[in-house]
Design goal:
binds NADP nicotinamide-adenine-dinucleotide phosphate, 10 strands, single chain, two-stranded antiparallel sheet, Dihydrofolate Reductase, subunit A, 160 residues, alpha/beta, 3 helices
Amino acid sequence: MKCIACMNKQGIIGIDNQLPWHIPSDLKHFKEYTMGSTVVMGRKTFESMGSNPLPGRTNVVLSTCFEFDDACVLGNMEELVKYPGAIVIGGEQIYRQALDLDLVLEICLTLVDREVRLKEGQYVAYFPVECLKDFEEVKRTENSEDGYDIIWYKKKESND
Ligand SMILES: NC(=O)c1ccc[n+]([C@@H]2O[C@H](COP(=O)([O-])OP(=O)(O)OC[C@H]3O[C@@H](n4cnc5c(N)ncnc54)[C@H](OP(=O)(O)O)[C@@H]3O)[C@@H](O)[C@H]2O)c1
């Protein structure tokens, strides 16, 4: 499986169940990267999109207790083996579990140069940056106009 995410240098990917920024060129990149594929997301991420499936993609939502008419809902991560070519699109809980379970072989990460000043009581979602130690950077493109790099990582060969 692959994974796509957009984080800032603090590792932040979301605040109060929303994206902390609106970067049209990166959203275009996300659309191009995922179009035609199966996308896997957590229930909170799906709800953050108004519970509307992403068009042109097979939408798989992980939830232990919700059902959605317009998306395939899975009750556990193990069922993801049915979607080997799928792309994990977040949020924090799903990135973390997919990476911990070694399901992800490629990461496409947008690194945004935007600092977020957190306020008390905000619900902050982070990318599990510690997992990147198991990956190596294979490509990087700079978008200095919009203030971000897109970094492609591949899983390092295991010595086990
Ligand atoms: N910047 C980015 O690239 C990016 C991308 C995506 C999302 N985000 C942000 O990330 C935030 C949301 O992340 P989050 O971590 O709070 O939530 P999330 O990962 O989107 O969803 C969490 C939910 O997924 C379900 N879930 C988790 N593990 C499961 C499992 N093993 N089996 C079945 N269901 C499982 C649970 O739903 P139930 O409670 O229904 O069981 C859980 O409450 C938002 O702010 C969003 O905007 C950012």
